[in-house]
Amino acid sequence: MSRIGKLPISIPTNVSITLKNKNLKIVGQFGELERKIPDSISVEQSSNKLTVISSKADRTSNALHGLFRALIKNMVKGVSELFVITLLLQGVGYKGVVEKDKLALNLGYSHTIDFIVPKTIKIQVIKNTTIKLTGCDKHELGLFASKIRAWRIPEPYKGKGIRYENEIIRRKAGKSGKK
């Protein structure tokens, strides 16, 4: 049995959970999320705790047991608190602008890069060089942030590029002069 899967998930008071035909729906103050639960896993609710139970004892069931417990916990946390990812633009002339449902980035190319922002993600640009993404779906938020970052991954010599807020870029020395 999975060690992670055994742990119960505490449910905040402002979150409601419904389970119908292996479809789990979680509704909170910041949105609602749905997920289909596989047949080898069952979910039980008691007062303010949620427990994920594996019905089989094989290797794939154990893996799914821990995975779905973590996914459900992230769903509960997302609808009650929201997830936040902050991206920093570092480089000369790098900046971002939000226009309606579109993010326009100047990243040193001859053209701007435009991203259509999904409906579940809220975006805020602070001082043109800091992008704050918030959303209740951790998977969708992380995927959108990684698509933005993929346009300019930070390089190790000057540190130019798009990096996460708490990411550390290991710097290289570069060329040495003649001696």
Helix and strand arrangement:
Layout: H1 3-6, E1 9-10, E2 16-20, E3 23-28, E4 31-36, E5 41-46, E6 49-54, H2 59-80, E7 83-90, E8 95-99, E9 102-106, E10 113-116, E11 121-126, E12 130-135, H3 138-149, E13 161-164
Antiparallel strand pairs: 1-6, 2-3, 3-4, 5-6, 7-12, 7-13, 8-9, 9-10, 11-12
List keywords for this structure.
Outer Surface Protein A, domain 3, 3 helices, alpha+beta, 179 residues
Task: Provide a descriptive summary of the structure in words.
With 179 residues, the protein is of the alpha+beta class. The protein folds into two domains: 3-80, Outer Surface Protein A, domain 3 (Alpha-Beta Complex); 83-164, Ribosomal protein L6 (Outer Surface Protein A, domain 3), CATH 3.90.930. The chain is 21% helix and 39% strand. The chain contains three helices and 13 strands. It has helices spanning 3-6, 59-80, 138-149, and strands at residues 9-10, 16-20, 23-28, 31-36, 41-46, 49-54, 83-90, 95-99, 102-106, 113-116, 121-126, 130-135, 161-164. It has a four-stranded antiparallel β-sheet with strand order 11-12-7-13, covered by helices on one side. The chain is elongated. The termini are far apart. The model has no long low-confidence stretch (mean pLDDT 87).
State the gist of this model:
The chain has about 180 residues and is of the alpha+beta class. It has 3 helices and 13 strands.
The CATH architecture of the largest domain would be: Alpha-Beta Complex
Instruction: For the record, give the distance between the C-alpha atoms at the N and C termini, rounded to a whole number.
Output: 63 Å
Order of helix and strand elements from N to C terminus: HEEEEEEHEEEEEEHE
Strands of the largest sheet, in order across it? Answer: 11-12-7-13
* CATH class identity of the largest domain: Alpha Beta
> Helicity, in percent?
10-25%
Number of helices: 3
Major sheet description: 4 strands, antiparallel
**Average pLDDT taken over every residue:** 87
- The total strand number stands at 13
| Structural class designation | alpha+beta
Task: Give me the CATH superfamily of the largest domain.
Answer: Ribosomal protein L6
The CATH topology of the largest domain is: Outer Surface Protein A, domain 3
Strand content: 35-45%
- What coarse outline follows from CA principal-axis ratios? elongated
Compute the gyration radius: what is it?
21 Å
Total tally of structural domains: 2
Poorly predicted regions: none
